[in-house]
Write a structure and sequence with these properties.
Elements lengths: L1 E6 L2 E4 L4 E9 L3 E10 L6 E6 L5 E3 L7 E6 L4 E6 L8 E11 L2 E7 L3 E6 L1
Length: 120
Amino acid sequence: QVQLVQSGGGLVQAGGSLRLSCAASGNIRRIDAMGWHRQAPGKQRELVASMASGADTNYADSVKGRFTISRDNAKNTVYLQMNNLQPEDTAVYYCNQDLFGDWGYTGRWWGQGTQVTVSS
C-alpha cells in the first residue's frame, strides 16, 4: 500500500512565503511525474505545477516566477516553494505522484490536501 503525506501550509500575509512537502511511503520502486494542484472554494481543481521524471517542469501562468516545484527522489518527496503569495492563491493544495511498485505502475496517488490561506 502507498501513502502520500503532506505537510506545510497555513496562514500567511500577502507577500509571504510557504513551503509544502509531500512524502510518499510504501511499495515504491520508482516515481515518475509529480505535481501540485489546488482547489479554491467554488472553483475546479487546477494544476499548479508539475515535474516529469526527467525534471522538466510546468507551471500555471498565475504562479510562474513565484512558485517552484522540486523533488528529492531519495526521500520520495516533492516540494512546492511558494513566494510572494497573494490572496488569490488561497486554496486547498493537493500533491500527486505517479508511482511504480514491485509489479509495475500502481497509479496516480494523491495527498490528503493542505489548506493555504493568504490574507491581504
